[in-house]
Write the structure tokens for this entry.
Amino acid sequence: MAIQWYPGHMHKAKKAIAERLKSVDMVIEVLDARMPASGENPLLGQLSAGKPKLKILNKQDLADPERTRIWLDDFNSRPDTRAIALDASDRQAAQKLIAASRALVPNRGGIDKPLRVLICGIPNVGKSTLINGMLGKKSAKTGNEPGITKAEQRLFLADDFWLYDTPGMLWPKIIVEEAGYNLAAGGAVGRNALDEEIVALELLDYLRRHYLPLLQERYQADKNESSHWRDDQWLEWIGRKRGALLPGGRINCQKAAENTLTDFRDGHIGRITLETPQQWAQWLKTAQQKEAILKAEREAKKAERKGKAV
Ligand code: GDP
């Protein structure tokens, strides 16, 4: 099952992003530190080539600190890119964000040369929390002027610091299957767009392979016995532990899945990151190969139809 949560309208979205990028000096992309690559918008990456970019690995309090360090190094080694990790409990978060932005584009500032910043991020990543922190007590001024769509907001953080917030910025098709699952596990995907049982099973499969001790600890599973459990056996165990049972004593898998996902989202299983740069590179390669095969098949069918028509 591939998870797609923003279908259609890509052409329009692309044009809108391209248009907005023309008039900003830099881009802040808020990412979830538990799945930094999955949350990156590939379209934004393509269209903002050459523009300074600040990547925020937010919710670092929920992520694996060692993996956050690896991701920060990875992002910081990319051209025009600076990355910092933040979390909402950090009282300095807003200041750090503003300082990092100003440092990234030092030639902008002052009333005649305001720093114009586009901020974006997947749903639920903590963008509003960060923006509210940056605004402080100042009330947000919204832009009711040409070139600023109704959905878009221009916020004046200071006379010389303008923040463009474009909610609902669309994503292209997610070709990496694991990205769909990770985003769903993290809560970026609307509930009606996903099958929670499948998402929980994928999550448990990753956790049993990479964070087994945390899983065993959280759900008090026997260390020897559970070390060989498959994802469905884990789900069943969690269901039993949580009393998620149907009449007759069968496991209520839906309930068990909801429990698992809530535990993960709230950080109750532990500090976890669902991907590393190496894993991501491998997933991307596999996905690109699959896409290429599909494309070739489509082309072949098209050619066959054309041949028949002649
Ligand atoms: P938005 O959809 O990106 O605007 O996300 P929100 O700012 O509304 O935040 C979504 C949820 O994540 C809220 O429940 C926040 O309290 C929570 N949240 C935001 N930032 C953090 C963070 O750094 N750490 C943790 N643990 N939770 C956060």
